[in-house]
Amino acid sequence: MCDSLIAKRNQLWTIVIVLLSAAAAIVVYYTAVQRIDADNFALFRQAVDEQAGDIKRDLSDSFHMIYDIARLFDSVENITAKNFYGFIKKEDFKDHPSFYNIGWAPRVIYSKKAEFELTARREGILPDYFIFEQSGGKDVPVQARDEYFPFHYRRQDNEGDIRIKGFDIASSPIRRKALEKARDTGDMAATEPIRLITEPSGDAKSLQIYMPVYYGNPKTVQDRRTNLRGFTFGTFRVKNIFEKSFNAHDDLNKRTVYDIRLQGLPDDEGLLYRHTPPGVDNLSKLNYIRTIEAVGQTIEIKAVPDVKYIAERRGRQPYYYGAAVFIIICLFGVFVVSAGTYTAQMKTEVASKTVKLRESEKKYRQLIELSQEGIWLIDQNALTTYVNHAMADMLGYTVEEIMGRNFLDFMDENMKPIAISAIQNQIKKEGSARLEFSLLHKDGSTIHVFVSASALIDEQGHYIGCFAAVLNITERKKLEQILLESEKEYRQLVELSQEGIWAVDKDNLTTFVNQAMADMLGYMDDEMKGVLFLEFLDDTSRLKAINSLKHQVQSGEKDRIELVFLHKSGKAVNASASVASIIDGKGGYAGSVAVISDITKRMELDAQLRKSLAEKELLLKEVHHRVKNNLQIISGMLGMQMEYVLDQNYHNMFEDCQLRIQSIALIHERLYRSEGLTNIDMRDYVVQLVEGYSKNLILDDTIAIKTDIDHISVGIDIAIPCGLIMNELLTNALKHAFPIGNPCITNKTCEVTVAIHSLDDNIGMVVQTENWSMTELPGWMPPYSAALEIVVSDNGAGFPEGKDFRKSKGLGMQIVLILVRQLGATIELDGTHGTKFSIKFQNSIKEQ
């Protein structure tokens, strides 16, 4: 009957455990889903931020040409329309996919309007040219205003003739707002999205970008309004700009809808571009909005991912977490139910020994009192008839407090049925029982005990009580639980490891391999156990392994070696093994364990990379050699052409070009002959460059070129600008520093010095503005490395007094200034003793 009750109870507990495990698994699953989705959405936001950075960079790259045109008008005071269109025709602006047109709109005040129109007619733009605006879809003469900003464009009239007209861009409120902003700030400004007058219909949404050009360098808003010359402008199709940005981030862009609009405008007016990938029709409720600043406008980028984009990145981790929780709770429940059954069995055994214990009570009472184990006797009614002091101390009571009480009083409600069942079904029927269960201490804590009980039987064979020896196993149970949990945890880690794990005993026989190790060699784990470890190695690796194992036995230190294993199929498997000793309880060597990684593919890839690198180095040397040869051919052709040039000015121009080409060719020659393919020793390069000048340009023995150059290695992107800068400054010094009659010629040797030094301390950075004035930025450190200084000086006549070299119209000095700006450098002129140009910059310029 009791066995049937226990079976039913176990079935009920099994159902409860399964339900609790399922509920816990569901909670863990949804918690994991939420956490993983949150992490994936954070990655999505990061990807959108990168996309926004690409968009901002593409906008900047597309609009930068407007700056270049504005610099043209800054450098030349009066440019006719014919000059301007000739310049535009030479420039390759059409390579920009977003480019529509570019132009110049001068400022024409009302009093000069008639004169401007007359000049335009005389230049042959249009016999009946006039400045017009649009009204009702028609071109009409402009209304009277203080100023106009006309630009010329070609348009077909009603008779089919192409006419050039002057449209006043300030007549449009949208354009006028952007013009005023650009004029007052001195920087580029963009319009709201517009449709062009040349494309009034269709999908031609564009942005017009305006860059002001002034007389002089006005500082205040009022000065800018007064000294305004006009605007350079460009028209860009926004769709083409953004489509270029969306070529990157393919996976993100194929699964995400983007709305890009100007902030602060209604939806239809402000919308610049909408990116809707094909097949994306089920959008997530999550979205991310990022704003960027460009050309005076705030652009809002809203990204909404497809539902599957987040779900697919979730993977199967939530299922694994839920399944692990379900299995762990089920196993724990099974363990608890089994422990209860075992406890009931132990109680029965205790009851069966009671009679025997009663008969030997007198004989062994003294021994019992001295025993470290608890001794407990009960009668047939389960009332305590005797306990020793060890039992009383175990429960925190005195012997008198326990005597006469039912032993069930010292158990919680869950244990009482188990104890009663043990007495009825085991002790009374079988005479004894051995079981584990728990008792309650006087302070309320639980004590785990192992009870060995025997029934006490009278002479007639009747049950009269029970004798129990009680052993406190609380500490043992705690250790068992800890060991059980630890064993499960580490076994799971070993079996799930992607690395091979191999254990051998002191005789090098395999005692354990995990699944990854067996798969690596193509065996079943049972096929490998008990086999000598060395049998799986090739001949060379066996010697390595034997030496490593000897080292383990002697020192016990860890070792790392590379071995070649033999796959079951016979192929070689290259592997890296980390080996450690296994020490037994006495401190002796008991074997070794190794963590083994398959490095076959890594070694094959390494060999391929080395071969590829050698081929590419050879190819790059050949490229430098051919570039040098081609530049030498060009230089030679210029030299041949110079023989036919009679005009000395043109002859000098050819000679300057030839020197520039030779300075670049020399760099490629140094790269071809050097061991490295990317860096050049500036000392060797400049010495060879100066030797060329000494032969070609110095016609007077009184002029000497001196060098003071450190051994400095620079890349080709630094070497070419430096070489051209030194070429121009040396040429300038040799041609102009020592005219006839200069004191240095009559009193001392004329010297030109070239010096290049590495600056140990960080140079105080001087940032050059658009008009080449310099502004000190204290405390600001650029993201550069290794500051360098180039000095080209002479003791000649000196730079003309009162002349600003930054405004020089000579080609050589303009080249120097452009290259200084390209290097992010500073340039200073010291005219105290002759002429001294000092250029400071950073070596190895990095992206900012």
Labels describing this entry:
alpha+beta, five-stranded antiparallel beta sheet
In short:
This protein is of the alpha+beta class and 848 residues long. A hairpin with a 5-residue loop joins β24 and β25.
Describe the protein's architecture and organization.
The chain is of the alpha+beta class and 848 residues long. The strands form nine sheets. Strands 1, 8, 9, 10 and 11 form a five-stranded antiparallel β-sheet that branches. A five-stranded antiparallel β-sheet has the order 17-16-20-19-18, sandwiched between helices. The two termini are 85 Å apart. The chain is elongated and about 145 Å long. Residues 761-785 have low confidence and may be disordered. Helix content is 46%, strand content 26%. The chain has 25 helices and 34 strands. α1 packs across α6 (238-245) and α10 packs across α15.
